[in-house]
Structure formats: C-alpha cells, structure tokens
Amino acid sequence: MQSISFTTADNYEIHGSVFTPSIHVKGRIIVAGATGVPQGFYRRFATFAKAQGYEVITFDYRGIGSSKPKTLKGFEMNLLDWGRLDLAAVVDSMSEDGLPLFIIGHSYGGHAFGLLPNHHKVSGFYVFGTGAGWHGYMPFSEQAKVLAMWNLVLPIITWWKGYCAWRLLGMGEDLPRSAFLQWRYWCKFPHYFFDDPKMTGLRDLYQSVKTPIVAANALDDRWAMPVSRDAFVKHYSNTSVTKVDISPKEVGGGIGHMGYFRKNAEPLWGAALNWFDGITTKL
After folding, report:
1. Does the pLDDT at position 283 exceed 90?
2. Is the pLDDT of residue 51 over 90?
3. What is the C-alpha to C-alpha distance for residues 213 and 207, in angstroms, rounded to an integer?
4. Considering just the CA atoms, what is the radius of gyration of the chain in Å?
5. For residues 267 and 86, what is the distance between their CA atoms, to the nearest angstrom?
6. Residue 98 binned pLDDT confidence (cut-offs 50, 70, 90)
7. In this predicted structure, what is the pLDDT of residue 225?
8. Over 90: is that where the pLDDT of 204 sits?
C-alpha cells in the first residue's frame, strides 16, 4: 500500500491509498465509499482484489478521515462535491494510462457515480447497498430509530458541537454540519434529491450515464432494502442496470448495511471481480 493525493477542480486536496499487485495488472478499481466511512474500512476488499490482479485505490472524501481539515466546526461543503469533485478527481488521475477502470461503490457511492462529469472513463460500476434513504422503505422498527436520529439526537449533537459528531454514537466518521443537513433533508423524499425542486438538472446527469451498472443489496440491509435501491437506480435510465438481491446465507450470516465489506464477504467481492473480468475481456 502506498499513500497518494489528488487535487480536485476546486483545489481541495484529498488523500488516498493505492494497492498495487506484484503480478500483471489487468485493471484498476476505485472504491467510492459510504457516508462517514473512512477508507480503511475497505482495506480487506482492496487486499482481496489486489491478489486477483487489480490495482485498487481507496480514498477519503473531503471532510472525512485523512481528507478532513483540522476542525470540522465551520467547515462548509456541498454533499454533491464528494461525487462531482472528489471522486471525479480520482477518476481523472487513474484513467490516464489506458488500463480498464472500474468503480466499486458502497451506499453513497451509488449516488456519487451519477454526479461524475467523467463517468464515460469508467468501464463498469458495481455498487453495494445504495438506496434512496427515505425512512418509508425501511422496516417499521428501523423507521422509528431513524426518525429519532434525524429529528432529535443528531440535530442536538450537531448544534452542540458545530458538526455532526457521529463518532459519539459509534456510527462512523464525524460529518461537516452542512453535509449532514443536506443528507437529512434529502432523506425526507422517497426519491432522495431527485424530489428536491431546487436540484434542477440532476435527472439529466443520471440519464447521461452509459456505463453498465450492477446494484446489489442485501435482503437484511434495513437502511437500503431492495425497494429503496430500485427507487434510486431507476434514474440511471439510459444504461443497463442489473439488480441483485443478496441473501445473508451467501456469506454465512448477517450482512446489514455495512457487512458488504466486512470479514467473510469474499463471495460478494468475487462476484464483482468476475463481472469486471467479463468486461475486461471484451475491451
């Protein structure tokens, strides 16, 4: 593993890691992570894919992990920038030498791909656990928890700290206040930001995507049930989208929203890499 940095179009520096195989490199994979999840969480997958001949790049979005400022208090950003600027900078940097380029996404990663101005440089996109975020798609018991979090717990913590201190709850990396407020607002809509009348042009962006997509969701992913995935990915309307419903039995136990990249998830990773292999042979 080697450290690497990328400079975005708005001159923000984000930091990542490169996992390069010692054998012939047959392709390159960028990991587009979930909201508030640091790049280290994806190291197991990166090591697995590296052993299969893929060079893998993990990175932290602005405001997260190694790409956050000294303090999040007062740090302003747009949640869309994680895709249209941060991920876009990694794609530009990693697509210069002609190697087949792929993206593995997790949750927010499924949102980020449609925001890219350079998605045409990516040969295939495989995403786990993406969804529209609306509580109405969740089981009733999860709805109650999520609504309490959105409307009571997190607003109080964010007001107190000046940023969304998620780590206090053991739920992930802290988030900039502005990013949290956007996320919470869009999760009020059944189709996320597509239902926000102020977000003009987003439907056209997603309709411009031609890269083939696989969207895989676990049947026990209470935050992103298959119905939630379907409500979001239908906006990738001008490309092939293969939907996969994953039984927890495929990994020998529960998956939930985070288990796609935890220990014992190798069967899921193998399926994604096999799909990338199939695309590579046709290029």
Report:
1. no
2. yes
3. 13
4. 18
5. 29
6. confident
7. 97
8. yes
pTM exceeds 0.85: yes
Structure tokens at 238: 């001008």
CB 198 within 8 A of CB 204: no
Q: What is the mean pLDDT of residues 205-209?
A: 97
Neighbouring C-beta atoms of residue 10, cutoff 10 Å = 12
**HSE (CB half, 13 Å, CA atoms) of 213?**
32
Q: What is the pLDDT of residue 282?
A: 86
Q: Whose structure tokens read 């031609």?
A: 210
Q: Which residue has the higher pLDDT, 237 or 263?
A: 237
Distance CA 183, CA 192 (A): 9
Q: Which two tokens stand for residue 205?
A: 């962006």
Task: Please choose, from the candidates 64, 62, 119, the residue with its C-alpha nearest in 3D space to the C-alpha of residue 92.
Answer: 119
Mean pLDDT of the chain: 95
60 φ/ψ angles, rounded to the nearest 5 degrees: -105, 130
CA distance 211 to 5: 26
Q: Are 26 and 50 in contact (CB under 8 A)?
A: no
